[in-house]
Design brief:
- The complex is a heterodimer of chains A (283) and B (186).
- With 283 residues, chain A is α+β, with helices and mostly antiparallel strands.
- Chain A is built from five helices and 14 strands.
- Chain A has a domain of 78 residues: Thrombin, subunit H.
- Helix content of chain A is 28%, strand content 30%.
- Chain A has a six-stranded antiparallel β-barrel. In chain A, strands 8-9-10-13-12-11 form a six-stranded antiparallel β-barrel.
- In chain B, strands 1-2 form a two-stranded antiparallel ribbon.
- Chain B is globular, with a radius of gyration of 17 Å.
- By secondary structure, chain B is mainly α.
- In chain B, a hairpin with a 3-residue loop joins strand 1 and strand 2.
- Chain B starts with a helix and ends with a strand.
- The chains are: A alpha+beta (283), B mainly alpha (186).
- Chains A and B meet through helix 2 and helix 3 of A and helix 3, helix 4 and helix 6 of B.
Chain lengths: 283, 186
C-alpha cells in the first residue's frame, strides 16, 4: 500500500496528464456522434447571449450589405410570384403542386413548408465541421433536423436547440451530405472535402450525363430540404475513367462567410412521411 | 496585483480576443477554390505560456484543460482544443528546463518573458509549443492522413500566424519603464 502511494506521488503529474487527455478524447468521441453536444455548444444560453451581444455591434456595420441581399431576394420572390400568375392554388407558406395530367384529384399536397427567419449570430467556415448559431430556438418553434436555407441557397440542418438559440451544422461539414439533382433530373449527393468554403463536390455522376460549366445544382425532395433550392454552380468537372463516373466541383450559391439572415424550414408533413418510410423499411 | 488575479484577467482578455475577433478572421483572399487552406489563428495558448515559472505541473495541466474546454465550447469542437492544451501543458516544463540556464526554482515570482529569457530562447519556447499545439489540434480535426501535404500546410501556416500574433501581444502589453526596465501589464 505504501509503495502504491509512493508510486502515485512520484507519477502524479503523468497520471493527471493521461487522465485529462482521456477526458478530452471521451468528449471528442461523444460529440462526433452529433448526439450529445448539448453542453459543448454555442446553443448554450450563456455562450449564445455573449455571441448575441457581439453580433449586435457587428450587425450595424453590415446593414448595407444586408439591405442589398434583401432587395435581391425581393426581386427573386417577385419573379417567382409572376410565374404563378393566374393560378389559384398559391397559399401562404405552403407548397402545392398542380399535376399536368389530372387524375382523380386535381392537386397533390406532398409537403407543407413553414418558413421562419432567424439571424445568424455565430458562424465558422474554417473548421472541418462548421456550425452556425441562430438567435431563435424552441420558443419560436425551431426543432431538431429542420432544414436551414438562405436567400441564395442551402445552409444546413438544425442539430441542437435551447429555449432561445439553435445550432445548425452547415453544408460545409464532412458529416453533412445533401441529396442533389442536376437540371436534367440526375440525382446524386453533394459533400464537402473540408478544404475551402468555396468548393463543394458532387460525386458519382454517370459519365454520359453532359454537364456544362455554369449549370446549377438543386436539392431534391428526398432529403429534409425542400426541393429546388439551389446548392451551387458547376465550375469544373473531373472524370474518373476506371469507374466511368465524374465529379462536379461546385461553387456554393450561399456565401458562407457573410451569412446574415437564414430561413429555418419546417415541413409539417415530415413526421407523417418519416413514419411511413420507416414502416416500409421495417424499422 | 496578485499573480492569481493577474492571470485570471489575462485569461479573460486573451479569450475575448480569440473568440470575438480571431475566430472571425477567415482570410478571404487566400481561400480561392484551389488556393490556400482556410485557417484561424490561435492566440489562446499564450495564457498557458505566460504562467509563472514555479507553477506546479498539476496546476498548469488543470489550467490548460480549463482554457481548452472554454475555447471548445465557443467553437463547437468538444475536447479538441482541450486535448492540444493539456498536451503542451505537460511538455511546457521540459521545454523551459531545456532553455533556461538556471534551475527553474530560482526564478521566484517571474513569468517567462523576453526580458528574463532573451529574444531567441523566448521565440524558440513559443514556437516549439505552438507548433506542437497546432499539430495535435489539426491532426485531430482532420482525422485522416490521406492529404498529408494539406495538413502540413495548414499546421505551418496557422502556426506562423499564431506565433506572430503572440509576439505582437507580448510587445504590445509590455510597458517600457525608463531605463530599459520592462514590465508586463497583463
Amino acid at each position: 500500500m505504501r509503495n502504491f502511494i509512493l508510486f502515485i506521488r512520484r507519477f502524479f503529474n503523468l497520471i493527471l496528464f493521461l487522465l485529462l487527455e482521456v477526458v478530452c478524447i471521451v468528449l471528442i468521441a461523444r460529440t462526433n456522434t452529433l448526439q450529445g453536444n448539448n453542453i459543448m455548444s454555442s446553443a448554450n444560453l450563456l455562450l449564445g447571449t455573449m455571441y448575441q451581444q457581439r453580433n449586435d455591434v457587428a450587425y450595424y456595420f453590415a446593414l448595407k450589405r444586408m439591405n442589398d441581399s434583401l432587395v435581391s431576394e425581393n426581386e427573386k420572390l417577385r419573379f417567382e410570384l409572376s410565374k404563378h400568375d393566374g393560378v389559384e392554388v398559391l397559399q401562404d407558406s405552403s407548397a402545392t403542386y398542380a399535376i399536368p395530367n389530372p387524375d382523380s384529384t386535381a392537386k397533390v399536397k406532398y409537403a407543407d413548408y413553414h418558413y421562419r427567419y432567424a439571424k445568424v449570430i455565430n458562424n465558422t467556415v474554417g473548421s472541418v465541421n462548421n456550425f452556425i448559431t441562430l438567435n431563435r430556438g424552441e420558443d419560436d418553434g425551431i426543432k431538431k433536423d429542420m432544414a436551414v436555407i438562405s436567400a441564395n441557397g442551402v445552409v444546413g440542418r438544425v442539430i441542437n436547440t435551447s429555449a432561445h438559440f439553435a445550432t445548425a451544422i452547415s453544408v460545409l461539414s464532412k458529416k453533412q451530405q445533401v441529396s442533389a439533382r442536376l437540371k436534367d433530373g440526375t440525382v446524386s449527393y453533394v459533400s464537402w472535402d473540408g478544404q475551402s468554403p468555396d468548393k463543394l463536390l458532387m460525386k458519382d455522376v454517370p459519365n454520359q450525363i453532359k454537364v456544362h460549366k455554369g449549370d446549377t445544382v438543386f436539392t431534391t425532395e428526398y432529403s429534409f430540404f425542400p426541393g429546388g433550392v439551389s446548392i451551387g454552380i458547376v465550375y469544373k468537372t473531373a472524370l474518373i475513367k476506371s469507374k466511368n463516373l465524374q465529379i462536379l466541383y461546385l461553387k456554393p450559391t450561399t456565401n458562407f462567410r457573410r451569412l446574415q439572415y437564414v430561413y429555418v424550414v419546417e415541413n409539417k408533413l415530415s413526421a407523417e412521411r418519416l413514419k411511413l418510410e420507416q414502416a416500409a423499411t421495417g424499422n | 496585483m496578485g499573480t492569481l488575479i493577474k492571470n485570471i484577467i489575462r485569461f479573460c482578455v486573451i479569450l475575448l480576443i480569440q473568440v470575438l475577433i480571431l475566430n472571425k478572421v477567415t482570410l478571404q483572399w487566400w481561400a480561392q477554390p484551389t488556393g490556400f487552406p482556410v485557417f484561424i489563428p490561435f492566440l489562446y495558448p499564450l495564457f498557458l505560456l505566460l504562467l509563472p515559472f514555479e507553477t506546479p505541473v498539476a496546476i498548469v495541466l488543470l489550467a490548460g484543460f480549463l482554457c481548452g474546454v472554454t475555447v471548445d465550447s465557443f467553437m463547437n469542437t468538444a475536447g479538441m482544443h482541450a486535448f492540444a492544451m493539456v498536451l503542451i501543458a505537460y511538455f511546457r516544463i521540459n521545454v523551459l528546463n531545456a532553455l533556461m540556464p538556471k534551475n527553474l526554482s530560482e526564478y521566484t515570482g517571474q513569468t517567462p518573458s523576453v526580458k528574463n529569457m532573451g529574444w531567441l530562447p523566448f521565440v524558440i519556447y513559443v514556437s516549439f509549443l505552438i507548433v506542437m499545439h497546432h499539430a495535435a489540434f489539426f491532426i485531430i480535426e482532420l482525422w485522416s492522413m490521406q492529404n498529408i501535404g494539406y495538413l502540413m500546410l495548414k499546421i505551418f501556416a496557422s502556426a506562423i500566424t499564431s506565433i506572430l500574433l503572440i509576439l505582437a501581444y507580448v510587445l504590445l502589453f509590455t510597458r517600457q519603464a525608463g531605463s530599459g526596465k520592462s514590465q508586463r501589464i497583463i
